[in-house]
Structure to design on (132 residues):
């Protein structure tokens, strides 16, 4: 069994539906306990009329209380994508790089305002996790 694995989060279109970082565009269930080692984001197309084009990755612990949203970012700061075809690495927070089986990683975005105008097309985030 490899000592590291990758989870991919993808969406065909992302906008600011509901406001910054409120909509989860994709989610992936963590299959085994480990430590997040890196996170990368790429988008072949970034809409030119958005003021902000940032992407964040949230961690939702397994089995939260009904109706609660205890998800928190795993990054020090959201990843900014400036140009089409950018591939940008994020910095992982020291306080929460650990994941356990059943946790969820979530892809969220901010395009500088509330609205349905797509900010990203074919957005992909890749998270590398080292197994315990």
């Amino acid at each position: 069994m490899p000592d590291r694995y990758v989870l991919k989060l993808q969406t065909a279109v992302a906008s600011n539906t509901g406001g910054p970082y409120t909509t989860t565009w994709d989610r992936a269930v963590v299959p085994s306990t480990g430590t997040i080692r890196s996170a990368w984001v790429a988008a072949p197309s970034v809409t030119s009329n958005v003021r902000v084009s940032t992407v964040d990755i949230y961690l939702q612990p397994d089995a939260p209380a009904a109706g609660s949203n205890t998800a928190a970012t795993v990054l020090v700061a959201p990843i900014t994508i400036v140009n089409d075809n950018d591939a940008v690495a994020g910095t992982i927070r020291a306080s929460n790089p650990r994941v356990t089986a059943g946790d969820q990683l979530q892809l969220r975005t901010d395009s500088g305002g509330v609205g349905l105008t797509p900010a990203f097309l074919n957005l992909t985030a890749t998270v590398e996790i080292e197994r315990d």
Notes: The chain has one domain: 4-131. The mean pLDDT is 87. The domain at 4-131 is CATH 2.60.120 (Jelly Rolls).
